[in-house]
Structure formats: structure tokens, C-alpha cells
Amino acid sequence: MSTTKNLSQRLRSLDFFRGAVMFLLVAEFSDLFGVLMNTGNESITTIANFLFHHVKWEGLHFWDLIQPFFMFIVGVSIPYSYASRLKRGDSKKQIRNHAFRRSFLLLVFGWTLYCLDQEKIIFRFDNVLAQLSFTYLITFFLVKKTPRVQSIVALLCIVASDLLYRFFPVVGFDQAFIAGQNFGAWFNIFISGYEYEGHWAAFNALPTAAHTIWGLMAGQLLMSTYTDTEKLKRLIIAALICLAVGYTVSIFTPVIKRISTSAFVFLSGGWTILALAACYWVIDIKSYIKKTLVFRVVGMNPLFIYIYSSIGGGDLFRKIVKPFTNSFIQGYSPWLASFILGLIVLFCLWYVCYWLYHKRIFIKI
Description:
This protein has 365 residues and is mostly helical. The protein has one domain (12-358). 67% of the residues lie in helices and 0% in strands. Helix 1 (12-29) crosses helix 12 (293-299), helix 5 runs antiparallel to helix 6 and helix 9 (209-223) runs parallel beside helix 11.
């Protein structure tokens, strides 16, 4: 890897990418996607299902890429954050302790979200924050390693998970890719006492660590002194390799996000790297998109808006606005009333982010 430059300079494409992903997550909490599923038009329903809902088990929808996007983006940010902290005078020990603290808090926040509205404490660790607490820490300790070592660790995470699913010997959980009868289901029961609704696997944190590690590698590439064209070329090559491997592996391993099979990790990783490459080309190289404020303000407080929306921020705005949309639009078109309600709730959630951005309030851990 060549030496780095302009360590403190923000990567506009990364801000845009992060903001766009968070905007989509916020839109989910506005219930707009659910409204689009109920238009009565089969074509719109099919498109909305592909774009905004997870595959029930085997396959790949666009919405299945959102979590890989998020975890990859965190990886891209790590070298920038590390360099920034060094520049402002933090010692390596302080940076390391901060990484431990951040990982712990992500785990606590992710776990706590599942305990809300429950009558007792439950232990469930499959949401993006809980998963990220593990992938972030693994990736942090690879910051000073060579790209070769980083690649090997990412591959080992994928292969180790794949082997566990294929050769797990416990009867009843020895069907690698059958919902509720695989290693992931056993692991859920082992750590939480029950199988998770939807068969999401807490063990996904291991194979999807590859996404965050690949993000780290992409971030270090973008910080390097290579030309913009060379950086773009390397990103595209990496994306095509992941896609080629993913589609090849999918011949004998199904693409299943809920247990993060090797085929899913490679395919989602490839599309994620390609998405970053596209943003980098459009925004940082060609400057076709110069005004990114709409998305950027959401991406500047990603943890806050995710938690705020998860604990009922969208529901609060919905309760305030719904009487008005019902009174003025419901009689004309119930569907239109729900759609406009969703748009207003989305705007309200976005405006919270804008207000924080305008006040220069950035909530971080």
C-alpha cells in the first residue's frame, strides 16, 4: 500500500453513501415501504418487495444489501478516524481504549433495543448494532496489518462459518441450509435460550466481519496516493472478483442472508464495493453530484437517528400527524392518506437530523 495523504480531508462520496443508506433506514421507520406494498398494483408490489423487503429465505433482494452497506461503510471510516485521532494527539493506547468502549456500547445498544417493551430482559444479538460491535473490533485490530493479512482474515471468517454450518454434528441442527435446523439456530438457542423469529442468526457477526474488513481495505486505498483513476480501477476489480466468487459459490451454496452464507457474503460484498466505486466516480472524481446535503445530514448522526427511530421516533410523529391526514385525505383516498402520512413522518425524522447538523451537534460514541 502506498503512503497516505490528506488524512483529515473528508471523503464526499463516503458521506453521500452513508447518508443514502441511513435515509433508506429512516424511510423504513416512516412505514412508507409498507404503504407501497398495499397499492393494489401487482407490479408496484413486486418492485417494492424487491427493493424494500428481505428475501424470506433463499435469494437476494436490494434490501438485503443495506446491512452489508452499513457495516462496510463503518470499515471505510475506520482508517480516517484512526488517522484523525493520531493527528489531534491521541496515543495509540487511547485510540485502542476508545475502540473497546465503542464496541461495548454498540453491543449494549443493540441488545437493549430488543428489551424495549418486553416484560423481562431478553438476550438477542442479531441486529446491526450488536453485529457491528464484533465486526468493528475485529477490523480495528487489522488497521496496521498488510492488505494480504486483512484479506486472509476476512476469508477465514467466511470459511470458518461455512465449515461450521456444513459439518456441525449436533442432531437436529445438522442441516446446513435449512431454516431452524442449522448451526445458526443452535447458536441462537445456546446464547439466548431460543431460536430467533425469522431465523436470523447471531453468529452472522463472524462471516459478515468480512464486509467491515473489506471496508477498511477500501478506506485505506482511498486514503493512499494512488491516482483517482487507479483507486477506482482497484475498487471495480475487487468488486468483480467478489461477484465472480459469489456467483460461482452459489452453484453449491445457496444465497441466504439470514444465516450469511459464503455465497451471500461474497455477492453482497461485491455489490457493496461496486456501490462505493460508483459514488466515488460520480461525486469525488466527476463531481456530477455536488449538493449532497439531503443525504449528508442523515449520515452525520447515524447512530442517533437509528436508535431514535428504533425506539419510536417515527411513531411519535405519526401520532401527531395522523389525525390531520385522516381528516383531510382519508375520505378521498385511504391509501393516499397513508402515503402522505409516511412522507411527512420521513420529513420529520430527516428534519431532526438537519436540526442537529445545523446546530453542529454530532452524537458519537
